Amino acid sequence: MADDPYALLGVPKNASDEEIRRAFRKLAKELHPDLNPGDKAAVERFKKVSAAYELLSDPEKRRRYDRGEIDASGEPRRAYQYQYQGATGGGPFGWRSARTGGASPFEEFGFSDIFSEIFGGARGTRGQRFGVGIRGSDVRYTLEIDFLEAVQGARKRVTMPGGGMLDLTVPQGVQDGQILRLKGKGGPGFHGGEPGDALVEIKVRPHPQFKRVGDDITLDLPITIDEAVLGAKVEVPTITGRVQLTIPKGTSSGRVFRLRGKGVRNATTGTTGDQLVTVHIILPDTIDDSLAYFMSEWRQRHKYNPRERG
Fold first, then answer.
1. Which of 52, 65, 114, 186 is most buried per CB count within 10 Å?
2. How many Å apart are CA 160 and CA 190, to the nearest integer?
3. Pair (198, 215) in one structural domain
């Protein structure tokens, strides 16, 4: 004997027609074959809940079932027999009615109204007939790029699961975790529906020197003790090349210099950030006798404690 139609739809036996309709609508949206390609379990459940709704949505059949005159499959007089024909066989959902000789059972029992509500208006001649044009699913990819490709922009190629290639432009200033949407590059639509989109999540590999804070670039720059004391001109890397930075006399470790316009260009605002250079005084690996003697003499004459400041 077939499964209890009330249990299949998840409604009590005293459920109203509207409750039955809502229950079927929810299950149809979850289990429809076009939305679960290759999922045989979903196809089988969809067949069962469709048959259950066909029985319970017919007042006379429901009364006869409740009185025990027919079972859940409509026996002893079996009026309809459904057979799944695949996504492209039979009617717009791959089903045929043995009694109607190929006409869609969805149309005969009001299923098309429900599917029209679920999936929206139709596209294409068959979709227009049944009101079930379905937009293709979105597909998701992850693309890992270098730090400089993210801030400067790049042309990249994504390999799709099926082996195909997808070319895309990585815009200047893209951020880690940002999603790029490529319209119409996703899964194909069903029954005249438009294709889905390709959603590409950007993963930015860290850079050994640069870090990004908003539209600004930060950089730690080592300098020597003599450059800090006497001042100097030093080369500084930026995202667009090397520039000269003037270190004033008496520069302390931790001082931040701002290189204006050397940050990331913001495609939305059209503005460009800055590069913030933090200098760090690095002593030589070996302190020779002359440096040690000089510092000892200097300390005796110019002793000071920076920890007492402020």
1. 52
2. 20
3. no
Burial 149-163 (b: 16+ CB within 10 A, else e): bbbbebebebeeeee
At 212-239, the pLDDT tens digits run: 999 999 999 999 999 999 999 999 999 9
Q: Which position has the token pair 């003599």?
A: 226
CATH number for the domain spanning 157: value is: 2.60.260.20
Choose the final residue of a domain: 184, 204, 224.
204
Answer yes or no: are the C-beta atoms of 190 and 143 closer than 8 Å. Answer: no
Residue 223: CB atoms within 10 A of its CB come to 18
Question: Is the model's pTM score more than 0.70?
Answer: no
Same domain (yes/no): 291, 174: no
User: Around Cβ 188, how many Cβ atoms within 10 Å?
Assistant: 12
The pairing of strands 232-238 and 241-247 is antiparallel
Residues 24, 124, single domain; the answer is: yes
Per-residue pLDDT tens for 258-301?
Answer: 999 999 998 888 899 999 999 999 999 999 999 999 999 999 99
How far, in Å, CA of 284 to CA of 235, rounded?
Answer: 19
Q: For residues 113 and 12, state if they share a domain.
A: yes
Distance linking the first and last C-alpha atoms of the chain: 89
Q: How deeply is 233 buried, as exposed, middle or buried, from its count of CB atoms within 10 A (0-12, 13-18, 19+)?
A: exposed
How many domains does the chain fold into? 3
- Quick one: tokens of 248? 């004033």
Give one word for 37, left, alpha or beta, with left for phi > 0 and alpha for psi -120 to 50. beta
Its domain, for residue 270, covers 211-308
